[in-house]
Write a structure and sequence with these properties.
It is a single chain. The chain folds into three domains: 6-118, Gyrase A, domain 2; 124-211 and 378-426, tRNA modification GTPase MnmE domain 2 (Four Helix Bundle (Hemerythrin (Met), subunit A), Up-down Bundle), CATH 1.20.120.430; 215-366, 3-Layer(aba) Sandwich (Rossmann fold). The chain has 15 helices and 13 strands. It has helices spanning 28-36, 86-98, 108-115, 121-132, 136-146, 149-172, 181-213, 227-235, 278-292, 309-312, 328-331, 356-366, 381-402, 407-425, 431-439; strands at residues 6-9, 16-24, 46-51, 57-66, 77-84, 102-103, 215-220, 253-259, 262-268, 296-301, 321-325, 336-340, 343-347. Strands 8-9-7-10-11-13-12 form a seven-stranded mixed sheet, sandwiched between helices. A six-stranded mixed sheet has the order 3-4-5-2-1-6, covered by helices on one side. β1 (6-9) and β2 (16-24) form a beta hairpin. It is flat and about 80 Å long. Bound molecules: guanosine-5'-diphosphate. The site of guanosine-5'-diphosphate has 20 residues, from α8 and α11. Its main location: cytoplasm.
Length: 445
């Protein structure tokens, strides 16, 4: 347990009905006693007056005491719930500092919860993800991660790996023998199952990461094709100025929308075209830069033709381009979504709204949300990265096994995979990684 006591205002800055100061650490009983003037019964709401050292009134409110280890951090925790005014909160904070607490760093309460074994690392991250959720679906998925759904999947995977490794390592005790045929086929089958389990978790984690971070969709295409109109139709606002004059959208416009819980960051670009106007040239330059970071490009045109070669070269090799054939109302065509050799093509009218549902459905499918993600969980790039690295070790183990490499080499790859997967829940996590994770939290969490 850590020796010092930390304090922070846990409610957001500004004025609110209630403001909460949270204290964690060994000085909690004394601090409670000094501020309330009496000892506080554990786990009960105790109404009282919060006072300065000289007895001056700070606030009246409710004190909650959670003695260690049954608290969020696993230490003694005190919550002082007062009136949510910035000066009141500041006075209360100062009083706690005066009584020996020090200001908490961002995420330090959750970090202590992790260090005291109340949460594993994936759960601790889910606390921040829950707070930062931008859609109701993200909240539900972060909730599942917080309750340990993701962690249990990883733990099961690691248990299987350990079993298999122990079995293989048992053969290492007989150095003259390599894995014989019978046990090799059992090991091959076990390893196949572990790889399949990993593949499944990777797919679900990818889905969780998309729901957490959203899909970055660039709207691009020649001037006057209807990009702004489509943006407005998708977002239901008049965020982009729609005008019939080519080249109006000179700057970038970003907009967060959601489609059935999938957050989508839409980036509307300047009409990408050659121009002598320096302002427009700048718009075109920015548009091209955005294209590189996209998960997906919606290429809007009145024809079914995609972007020309020079624009294609700016796109990341694996970034899909969906061709949106706009203004079908002018041609009397019906909306449709078709797969062609050149990729997906969606015919719609941004102005009338015909076919927008096809586009929305397609975006959901692209994000892997075709079906409702039952049992899904929130995940981060860090988790996907660990899963990918572990996956490569498993592939290497499979390769070694298939090519009759020594049992030792196979076991070593499995061991590496186990360590890498352990980074997700924090079983094997470098300190600097912990620092990076918790410093992105808000203060008081
Ligand atoms: P941008 O330059 O690509 O952003 O194009 P705008 O969204 O500003 O649209 C250019 C013009 O096309 C405007 O006059 C729009 O009203 C019109 N427009 C956009 N979408 C449609 C559509 O689906 N049907 C019709 N008839 N006109 C459209």
């Amino acid at each position: 347990m850590t020796a010092d006591t930390i304090v922070a205002v846990a409610t957001p800055p500004g004025v609110g009905g209630v403001g909460i100061v949270r204290v964690s650490g060994p000085l909690v009983p004394q601090i409670g006693l000094a501020i309330l003037g009496r000892s506080i019964a554990p786990r009960q709401a105790s109404f009282g007056v919060f006072r300065e050292a000289d007895g001056d009134f700070i606030d009246e409110g409710i004190a909650l005491l959670f003695p260690a280890p049954r608290s969020f951090t696993g230490e003694d925790v005190l919550e002082l719930q007062g009136h949510g005014g910035p000066v009141v909160m500041d006075l209360l904070l100062r009083r706690c500092l005066e009584l020996g607490a020090r200001p908490a760093r961002p995420g330090e309460f959750t970090e202590r919860a992790y260090l005291n074994g109340k949460l594993d690392l994936a759960q601790a991250e889910a606390v921040a993800d829950l707070i930062e959720s931008s859609t109701a679906l993200a909240v539900r998925l972060a909730g599942r991660s917080l309750q340990g759904v993701f962690s249990r999947r990883i733990e099961t995977l690691i248990e299987h790996l350990i079993q298999l490794r122990m079995y293989i390592e048992a053969t290492l005790d007989f150095p003259d023998e390599d894995i014989d045929d019978a046990s090799a086929s059992a090991v091959t089958e076990d390893l196949r199952q572990i790889i399949e389990m990993t593949r499944q978790i990777m797919a679900e984690a990818h889905q969780g990461q998309v729901i957490r971070e959203g899909l970055a969709v660039v709207i691009a295409g020649p001037p006057n094709a209807g990009k702004s109109t489509l943006l407005n139709a998708l977002s239901g606002t008049d965020a982009a100025i729609v005008t019939p004059i080519p080249g109006t959208t000179r700057d970038l416009l970003k907009l967060d929308i959601q489609i059935d819980g999938l957050p989508i960051r839409i980036i509307d670009t300047a009409g990408i075209r050659h121009s002598e106007d320096p302002v427009e040239q700048e718009g075109v330059r920015r548009a091209r830069a955005q294209l590189v970071e996209a998960d997906l490009v919606l290429w809007i045109d009145e024809t079914a033709e995609g972007p020309d070669e020079s624009i294609r070269n700016d796109l990341p090799a694996d970034c899909p381009i969906i061709r949106v054939r706009n203004k079908i109302d002018l041609l009397g065509l019906t909306p449709q979504c078709s797969e062609t050799d050149a990729g997906t093509e969606i015919a719609l009218s941004a102005a009338t709204g015909a076919g927008l549902d096809l586009l929305r459905a397609h975006l959901k499918t692209r994000a892997g949300l075709g079906a409702t993600p039952e049992g899904a969980f929130i995940a981060r790039r860090r988790h996907l990265d660990a899963l990918n690295r572990g996956w490569r070790h498993l592939q290497a183990a499979q390769h070694n096994l298939a090519h009759g490499a020594g049992a030792e080499l196979v076991a070593d790859e499995l061991f590496q995979a186990q360590n890498v997967f352990g980074e997700i829940t924090g079983q094997f996590t470098p300190d600097d990684l912990l620092g990076r994770i918790f410093s992105s939290f808000c203060i008081g969490k």
